[in-house]
Amino acid sequence: MRTDPHPEPAPRRDAGLAARTAELAAESPVRAARSPWPRRLRSTGKHVGLVALAVMMIYPLIWLLVSSIKPSETIFRDVSIIPGEIDLTNYTAGWNALLHPFGHYMMNSAIVVLGSLVGNLIACSMAAYAFARLEFRGRRVWFAIMLMSIMLPIHVVIVPQYVLFSQLGWINTFLPLIVPKLLATDAFFVFLMVQFFRGIPRELDEAARLDGCGHGRIYLRIMMPLAMPALATTAIFTFIWTWNDFFSQLIFLTNPDMYTAPIALRTFLDATGQSSWGPMFAMSIVSILPIFLVFLFGQKYLVKGIATTGIK
Predict the structure, then answer these.
(1) ABC transmembrane type-1 domain: from which residue to which, for each copy (predicted)?
(2) How far is CA 29 from the centre of its chain?
(3) What is the pLDDT of residues 152-192, one digit of tens each?
(4) Could you state, in chain order, the average pLDDT of each consecutive group of 10 residues for the chain (312 residues)?
(5) How many CB atoms are closer than 10 A to CB 33?
(6) Please, what is the Cα angle at 240 between 47 and 293, to 5 degrees?
(7) What is the C-alpha separation between 185 and 93, in angstroms, rounded?
(8) Dist CA 288 CA 301 (whole Å)
(9) What digits encode the pLDDT tens for the residues 234-276?
(10) Distance from CA of residue 48 to its chain's centroid?
(11) In Å, how far are 4, 5, 20, 246, 275 from 15, measured between CA atoms?
(12) How far apart are CA 16 and CA 181, in angstroms?
């Protein structure tokens, strides 16, 4: 009969397993008897920390809102967020304090935002479709140049842009703020849509070609409906960035009749020290409301669009 030259390891393993099982059985009553309070305390501590961080982040906005309903002479004398006296005249005074009612400047901002929205949605989606689906010479080189343009600060290109638009006679018009959007100059949105288009199966394109569709119909009837999350993200970001834009609008718009909301808010400040803080804070709240509403109702589309484009 053949004998095993190493008969001992198996019993030793069985003995070790039995000992470990007995140890766990002995510890189980102790674990069951442990109080859940340490875990609850850790969870409570995390929530308290997050709430404290959130309060720190929104405190300036709360202070701005409270200051807008305080008398101007008490805004910096009483910096608490509990107003001792409520005065709503800042809103009426701020609305009519400038050359035109403040609604005029918000309408100017709306025109710029609408033009930028249309330009980015159409031009950036077309450029993204070309980079994602078309084969042409130098595609990778042009795509790399497009990505490099994201790194250029606005201060580098604003001077040649001003010279060009001045020669075209576009200063004090909305054209310098809208026309570049029609040329897909926002490389971030092009990149975002390229990432989304690359995630759409090419089999859909091939099936459409078998039905006789060209690139135009594929772009309009297949890509655009499927790209709604990316388009919504582009629209929300374009609205927020364009509405808050101050530098570019200050450079190209020098006529008070053409001022947008950010530039109009700047006119409440006086270099001599006679600044209308109360009305300016009140109109700041009014100008923030469109951004707040857009972000409130478009948050789910924003999150979905960023998640589906692979941008972390």
Answers:
(1) 106-298
(2) 52
(3) 888 888 999 999 999 999 999 999 999 999 998 889 999 98
(4) 50 54 54 63 85 88 88 80 82 89 94 94 93 88 90 87 93 93 91 89 87 87 88 91 92 92 86 72 92 84 65 44
(5) 7
(6) 65
(7) 39
(8) 20
(9) 999 999 999 999 999 999 998 999 999 999 998 887 655 566 7
(10) 26
(11) 19, 20, 9, 76, 85
(12) 72
Phi-psi region of 269 (alpha: psi -120 to 50; beta: other; left: phi over 0): beta
CA distance 239 to 115: 10
What's the rounded Cα separation, in Å, for the pair 69 and 94? 12
SS (H, E, C) the chain: CCCCCCCCHHHHHHHHHHHHHHHHHHHHHHHHHCCCHHHHHHHHHHHHHHHHHHHHHHHHHHHHHHHCCCCHHHCCCCCCCCCCCCCCHHHHHHHCCCCCCHHHHHHHHHHHHHHHHHHHHHHHHHHHHHHHHCCCCCHHHHHHHHHHHCCCCHHHHHHHHHHHHHHHCCCCCCHHHHHHHHHCCCHHHHHHHHHHHHCCCCHHHHHHHHCCCCHHHHHHHHHHHHCHHHHHHHHHHHHHHHHHCCHHHHHHCCCHHHCCHHHHHHCCCCCCCCCCHHHHHHHHHHHHHHHHHHHHHHHHHHHHHHHHCCCC
Q: Please, what is the Cα angle at 138 between 135 and 142, to 5 degrees?
A: 105
Q: How far is CA 44 from the centre of its chain?
A: 30
| SS3 readout for 60-87 | HHHHHHHHCCCCHHHCCCCCCCCCCCCC
- Amino acid, single-letter form, for residue 150: I
pLDDT of residue 308: 62
